Amino acid sequence: MLIFPPATPSHSQYQVVALEGTWPILNHESPSQYLDPHTAKEYAGQTFIVFTVVGAIGWDFLVTLPDEIRVFGRRKFTLPIVAHYTSRICVFPYVILTAIYTSTPIGDCSAVRIMIGVFFLLTMGATSLLFYIRVRAIFEQSLVATIVFGFVWLSILVTALLAPFASRVEYIGPTKICRIIFEYPFGFPTWPILVMTGFDTLVFLAIAWKLIKGVGAYVPSRDGSSKWKCTVGLDIVVLLVAVTGPSFAASAEVIMSLIFSDVVLKNVLACRLFRQTLLDPPGTGNQGSHLEIQRQTSIHLQRDLFLTDELLKNRSIRVNGRVAEDVLRPPSAVYTREI
């Protein structure tokens, strides 16, 4: 029988308990005392990862604050701008609530879980929408690309909306600290992550294809393509752990840590690429190409045509697949095409 010492036990009382073959609980408010050793280590790792990500997202916001002010000050509130700020703003309550949820005693776990689910839905929806807008710009608003990627984006929203219903919460002992329990095999770790992995993979393949062909209204930089490799790689790791979790005894803490990191990484990547595309001056890393958002339903691709000595000799410029003979533009001239 486990013997709990009084609130302020003496040294002799601890000795008596130890001699009787039991171990006293020195800190009754620590959740690790009520978990098995393996799960307790994973819980400690989850807490460390969550607070590390909170610090990282805060640092990223401070570093990119000047660019955020530039976006806010010089652009109209169109659909891409709204998606950017929705993704950027909703990620903060998502990470803060998750940190509170995993480390602080809460009176109502279900209510906080619902709030986390709402901000998870808004963050993932807005972040994926930024990727969707980018792909449509790359494919010049192709009908096929619009339908295919639009369907996958809607699938992300549906699976993220249904995710909270495939999990349950419980307290860790008497500590009032919450813990999420996922339901297998068709619970939260499987379907949303599968859809998001498919979406990110399609986006990466689309960008890689455009880079290889070197055609299109907006060919993204190789730096952006390399960043997508990181997200796709993390997506695959999260998916494998989520699907094979019961086989390899991966607890909810491991899965939640990976999902949490994946969501925040996507948010930082999508917003950073959007700001770079929107604000980078011509010829500074994007080959003079950047997005110009003028209406909610239109994306104007602006390209500064710098005439090199070779072009001046040939007196010929190829623009969007067409040869424009004897086109001599000053370096400040801007070619704008609405898609």
Give a brief description:
This protein has helices spanning 11-19, 37-74, 79-103, 109-138, 143-162, 191-213, 222-243, 252-279, 309-314, and strands at residues 167-171, 178-182, 289-295, 298-304, 316-319, 322-325, 334-338. It has 339 residues and is mainly alpha-helical. The chain folds into 2 domains: 35-279, Rhopdopsin 7-helix transmembrane proteins; 299-338, no CATH class.
Describe the structure.
The chain crosses the membrane at residues 43-65, 77-102, 114-133, 145-166, 191-212, 232-260. Keywords: Membrane, Transmembrane, Transmembrane helix. Helix 6 (191-213) runs antiparallel to helix 7 (222-243). This protein is mainly alpha-helical and 339 residues long. The chain has a 3-stranded antiparallel beta sheet. The protein has a two-stranded antiparallel ribbon with strand order 1-2. The chain has a two-stranded antiparallel sheet with strand order 5-6. The chain has 9 helices and 7 strands, in the order H-H-H-H-H-E-E-H-H-H-E-E-H-E-E-E. The chain has 2 domains: 35-279, Rhopdopsin 7-helix transmembrane proteins (Up-down Bundle), CATH 1.20.1070; 299-338, no CATH class. A hairpin with a 2-residue loop joins strand 5 (316-319) and strand 6. Helix content is 59%, strand content 11%.
